[in-house]
């Protein structure tokens, strides 16, 4: 994964103030008529060009964050590239209950030759009784080299997933693939294995992500494979982390008369990286990018000048390095001009590149009487993209 710099739901509710955000204030910029019309004419999820409008100096929205109860959260993305034929990239102990596992690993074996492998997330029943495992949300794509597509589609599938009725049983000491399809998939050199799995168990377990040859049984590989060191030159992190879900609330009511504002999440500064522990060493772990963490956002707004709000996002880090040239995401957004639901960003092509390109997420019409309204959406930092990916609210004349 790419990032700006390169314990789970058992926690009680914790209120965290985003005090570093600038107070809500007027923007000096006014939307030109031509750009206003472009936003009105654009379809949801499409790219629009907004020359002179996109920059990181736009006034930030102050907000509060609440840590929500959620599943035990594990991510496997350090090392991102598994460069030995047989190895364990992650190994963590989990307690009975809900677990969210984010797998983001690449077959990086190229010496002495590039080979085909399988990369599998497995769980071992470390309890004394039979484990019952049921999938709550499930997102898994075929291995591929289009990391942006895999990451964007992965979030879309996760948001659309519903709890499964099937309950799998795992005997004490038994090892099974969390995703049976993943166990069968062949992973060629440089292909990404990407999966987001949210499931519940009634026994303690050991979760591992391992790479081995396609013909090797996973239980055999698990017994003999070494655990790789973390903190390689790529990857966001690995371990069991203390936050899986946030609720984000605006500190002030947005007013269209005050001009453009931006909501900046997952920047590592105003919104710090979540912390956890790495299971094999017990060391403190940092999730650089907060990938896989869900932000449930609720913003209050009103229009005292009769304008609506256009919500757009853009790739603010396009010039950082060779890995930041594109951005793709998926969000769930509340009803506005377009219906409520899941929207891939962009929807009309794979990625957005750099300014003046922006992606239209939604347009929110003003209330007839100027009453306060609520904007809701679910955001998660997009895998394969550099962060942050600012969310910009632009006052727009609905009848130019």
Automatic annotation (TrEMBL):
Residues making up the signal peptide according to the UniProt record: 1-28
Signal is among the record's keywords: yes
Protein name: Copper amine oxidase-like protein
Domain of life: Bacteria
Keyword terms: Signal
């Amino acid at each position: 994964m790419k990032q700006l710099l390169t314990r789970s739901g058992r926690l009680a509710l914790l209120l965290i103030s985003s005090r570093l955000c600038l107070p809500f204030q007027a923007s000096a910029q006014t939307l030109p008529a031509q750009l206003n019309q472009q936003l009105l004419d654009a379809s949801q999820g499409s790219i629009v060009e907004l020359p002179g409008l996109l920059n990181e100096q736009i006034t930030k929205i102050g907000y509060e964050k609440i840590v929500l109860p959620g599943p035990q959260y594990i991510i496997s993305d350090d090392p991102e590239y598994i460069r030995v034929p047989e190895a364990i990239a992650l190994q963590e102990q989990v307690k009975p209950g809900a677990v969210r596992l984010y797998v983001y690993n690449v077959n990086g074996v190229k010496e002495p030759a590039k080979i085909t492998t399988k990369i599998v997330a497995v769980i071992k029943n470390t309890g004394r009784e039979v484990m019952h495992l049921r999938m709550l949300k499930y997102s898994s794509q075929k291995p591929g080299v289009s990391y942006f597509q895999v990451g964007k589609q992965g979030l879309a599938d996760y948001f659309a997933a519903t709890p499964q009725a099937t309950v799998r049983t795992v005997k004490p000491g038994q090892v099974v693939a969390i995703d049976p399809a993943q166990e069968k998939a062949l992973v060629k050199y440089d292909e990404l294995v990407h999966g987001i799995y949210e499931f519940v168990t009634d026994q303690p377990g050991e979760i591992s992500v391992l790479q081995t040859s396609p013909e090797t049984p996973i239980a055999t590989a698990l017994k003999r494979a070494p655990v790789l060191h973390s903190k390689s030159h790529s990857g966001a992190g690995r371990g069991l982390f203390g936050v899986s879900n946030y609720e984000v609330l605006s500190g002030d009511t947005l007013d269209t008369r005050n001009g453009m504002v931006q909501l900046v999440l997952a920047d590592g500064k105003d919104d710090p990286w979540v912390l956890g522990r790495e299971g094999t060493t017990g060391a403190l772990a940092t999730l650089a990018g907060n990938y896989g963490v869900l932000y449930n956002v609720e913003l209050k707004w009103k229009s005292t000048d009769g304008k609506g709000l256009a919500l757009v996002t853009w790739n603010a880090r396009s010039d950082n390095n060779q890995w930041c040239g594109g951005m793709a995401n998926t969000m769930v957004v509340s009803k506005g001009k377009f219906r409520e639901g899941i929207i891939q960003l962009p929807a009309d092509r794979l990625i957005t590149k750099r300014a003046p390109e922006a992606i239209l997420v939604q347009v929110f019409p003003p209330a007839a009487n100027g009453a306060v309204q609520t904007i809701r959406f679910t955001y998660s930092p997009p895998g394969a993209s550099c962060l942050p990916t600012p969310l910009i609210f632009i006052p727009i004349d609905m009848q130019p």
